[in-house]
Amino acid sequence: MKTRAAVLDGPGRLVVRDQTLRAPRRSELLIAVEAAGVMFAEVQMALGRYPGQPRFPFVPGYDLVGTVVDGPRAGQRVAAMTRHGAWAELVVRPARQVVEVPAGLAPADAVALVTNGVTAYQLLHRSARVRPGETVLVLGASGGVGTLLTQLAVAAGATVIGTASPAKHHAVRGFGATPVDYHGPGLPDRVRALAPDGVDVVLDPIGGPGFDDSWRLLAPGGRLVWYGSQSTLHATGVRFAPAIVALRKIAAWNARSRLRRDGRRASLYYVRNGTRAFRTDLATVLDEAAAGRLSSAVSARYALDQAREALTALSDGRITGKAVLEISGRGRALGAGAEDLQGV
């Protein structure tokens, strides 16, 4: 069986070509992909900088929404988190790892809620355990996860401060948060001006030099959850090194906090698919979107042949909210072939 897919042949090299796809086993589903997400993890993968990514060559694509091709579930629209492999017309996935998409929810809107939606929901409700009346600082509030975090935190009764570039402040404000410019020095002071006593929760997908500021901004009893390393995109050296540094800081902060008994704590969050919690939380966010209570914030749609353009736009900060590939082909195709991603 053949399928057309976007393949990363090596750092910076994306090729759209036919791939051999094995037949599904009895416990698996053959899915015709309708939409696949584009996220910062794939930008890092394109440069060979994502921890735990497969060896080149491989098909990227962290999540998908599509229709089951055959078997008892034929015709059913489902969503799945894949970590890689979703940027293809046909995909084989274990049946136990897919969740049915509610009727009336478009594929592009649904796929924006798979990895990003579960990440946002679990950060708030399973890791940070945000309570009504608390103040939450969302770093990167205009991004794919950040827009969902903002909406869910506001819905939970929190006061939200969201960092974003000035051009995206209107979007952050529209989701119910107070925007703060992250450019240049003085970000902690700008946050302190809005929350003089500190914030109750910081949700940080960036890490790097500003990670210490995230900890210092916590009020007594506050929680810092680190869930990404966007600041290290163009770093060199061992790709796991930034995570090791961050985990050492988390351990040291938590030890000092216990000694001081100030109630602050820091933790690492990493989304895990294939678990009952993942399937439950994905069904929850999909239902919220289908009911009109949660916006997927999809702002950029690309055909499969435009994967390079999507990655470049995301890396350059030109996308507010979520970017998706519409594998069914709606949109302006650029043509297949090798694409140089070294500029990402």
From TrEMBL:
Residues 12-325 form the Enoyl reductase (ER) domain. InterPro entries: ADH-like_N, ER, GroES-like_sf, NAD(P)-bd_dom_sf, Zn-ADH-like_protein. Coiled coil: none annotated. SUPFAM superfamilies: GroES-like (SSF50129), NAD(P)-binding Rossmann-fold domains (SSF51735). GO terms for molecular function: oxidoreductase activity. Gene3D superfamilies: Medium-chain alcohol dehydrogenases, catalytic domain (3.90.180.10), NAD(P)-binding Rossmann-like Domain (3.40.50.720). It comes from the Bacteria. This is Zinc-binding dehydrogenase. It comes from Cryptosporangium phraense.
